[in-house]
Design goal:
mainly alpha; globular
Length: 85
Protein backbone atom coordinates (compact mmCIF):
# COMPACT_ATOMS: atom_id res chain seq x y z
CA UNK A 1 0.00 0.00 0.00
CA UNK A 2 2.83 2.38 0.81
CA UNK A 3 4.47 1.80 -2.58
CA UNK A 4 1.18 2.50 -4.37
CA UNK A 5 0.71 5.70 -2.36
CA UNK A 6 4.22 6.91 -3.16
CA UNK A 7 3.77 6.13 -6.85
CA UNK A 8 0.40 7.90 -6.89
CA UNK A 9 1.93 10.92 -5.08
CA UNK A 10 4.76 11.04 -7.64
CA UNK A 11 2.21 10.71 -10.46
CA UNK A 12 3.77 7.48 -11.68
CA UNK A 13 1.11 5.49 -13.55
CA UNK A 14 0.47 1.92 -12.44
CA UNK A 15 -2.23 -0.73 -12.63
CA UNK A 16 -3.45 -3.09 -9.95
CA UNK A 17 -4.88 -6.52 -10.59
CA UNK A 18 -7.03 -8.67 -8.31
CA UNK A 19 -5.36 -11.74 -6.80
CA UNK A 20 -7.83 -13.97 -8.66
CA UNK A 21 -6.14 -13.06 -11.98
CA UNK A 22 -2.78 -14.30 -10.72
CA UNK A 23 -4.30 -17.40 -9.12
CA UNK A 24 -6.20 -18.31 -12.30
CA UNK A 25 -3.03 -17.92 -14.35
CA UNK A 26 -1.02 -20.11 -11.98
CA UNK A 27 -3.56 -22.87 -11.26
CA UNK A 28 -6.57 -22.39 -13.58
CA UNK A 29 -8.61 -21.66 -10.42
CA UNK A 30 -9.31 -18.06 -9.47
CA UNK A 31 -9.99 -19.09 -5.88
CA UNK A 32 -6.84 -21.22 -5.38
CA UNK A 33 -5.57 -21.44 -1.82
CA UNK A 34 -1.95 -21.09 -0.71
CA UNK A 35 -1.40 -24.84 -0.82
CA UNK A 36 -2.51 -25.09 -4.46
CA UNK A 37 -0.39 -22.08 -5.42
CA UNK A 38 2.65 -23.64 -3.73
CA UNK A 39 2.01 -26.92 -5.54
CA UNK A 40 1.89 -25.10 -8.90
CA UNK A 41 5.12 -23.30 -7.97
CA UNK A 42 7.02 -26.47 -7.07
CA UNK A 43 5.67 -28.32 -10.12
CA UNK A 44 6.94 -25.59 -12.42
CA UNK A 45 10.35 -24.75 -11.00
CA UNK A 46 13.55 -26.53 -10.17
CA UNK A 47 13.25 -25.46 -6.55
CA UNK A 48 14.06 -27.68 -3.61
CA UNK A 49 11.00 -29.81 -2.89
CA UNK A 50 11.46 -28.99 0.77
CA UNK A 51 11.48 -25.18 0.34
CA UNK A 52 8.62 -24.81 2.83
CA UNK A 53 10.44 -26.90 5.39
CA UNK A 54 13.68 -24.96 4.86
CA UNK A 55 12.04 -21.55 5.34
CA UNK A 56 9.29 -22.35 7.85
CA UNK A 57 10.20 -25.63 9.57
CA UNK A 58 7.71 -25.25 12.43
CA UNK A 59 4.70 -24.36 10.30
CA UNK A 60 2.19 -26.98 9.15
CA UNK A 61 0.64 -24.64 6.55
CA UNK A 62 2.03 -22.43 3.80
CA UNK A 63 2.85 -19.08 5.42
CA UNK A 64 5.12 -16.11 4.78
CA UNK A 65 7.75 -15.85 3.40
CA UNK A 66 6.89 -18.90 1.27
CA UNK A 67 3.53 -17.58 0.07
CA UNK A 68 5.11 -14.20 -0.76
CA UNK A 69 7.78 -15.92 -2.87
CA UNK A 70 5.14 -17.94 -4.72
CA UNK A 71 2.93 -14.90 -5.35
CA UNK A 72 5.90 -12.78 -6.48
CA UNK A 73 7.01 -15.44 -8.93
CA UNK A 74 3.60 -15.74 -10.57
CA UNK A 75 3.06 -11.96 -10.66
CA UNK A 76 6.40 -11.55 -12.45
CA UNK A 77 5.61 -14.42 -14.81
CA UNK A 78 2.20 -12.93 -15.65
CA UNK A 79 3.93 -9.66 -16.51
CA UNK A 80 6.52 -11.36 -18.70
CA UNK A 81 3.88 -13.42 -20.52
CA UNK A 82 1.76 -10.31 -21.17
CA UNK A 83 -1.17 -11.43 -19.03
CA UNK A 84 -1.08 -8.17 -17.06
CA UNK A 85 -1.71 -5.53 -19.71
Amino acid sequence: GLLKHKMWSARIPFKTFPPSVIKKYATDKGNADKELMYEAFTDELLTPTDLKELLTPKSKKITNPVSDIVDSYFIAKCGIDGVLT
